[in-house]
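Handout, section B. The chain below has 141 residues.
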Amino acid sequence: MGGAGGTAVRDRGPLRRGRRLGRLPPPPHGVALVGRRGLAEDGARVGWNLVAGIHDAPDASERTVWVDGDPHEVGPVAFAPDLSAVAGLRFGEWSAREDHTNLLLLRSHYRQPFGSFAGGLPGGLRLAEGYGVMEAHDVRW
């Protein structure tokens, strides 16, 4: 994920142009979701880490769903452009942390909303409740 010690995603040219400060649509590369915790409808404790654009090879990726502590790698996922959904999960934003820095040679646009998740996890488990963050990071250096 972006941030100190994390992995950054490089600017991919024209796909990044035309953004307005304060409104950061997630790029097609470098979007990540980190689900902190949840409870499946069947009572299983679940956690998830779904990514696109970073550490997302078809196999041996970061994409993992944990069910009662057991990890299960899942296939590639797609994020909604406004971070309102990923795969079968819907996301309701409560608040967000943002940073927009432009130092000419270094540019970083970062948005990390926190909120709740509803719907189904990859693999078919339905959430009874889920909480966590979405993240979009566009950086050039």
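Note. Residues 1-29 have pLDDT under 50 and may be disordered. Compare this with the example in section A.
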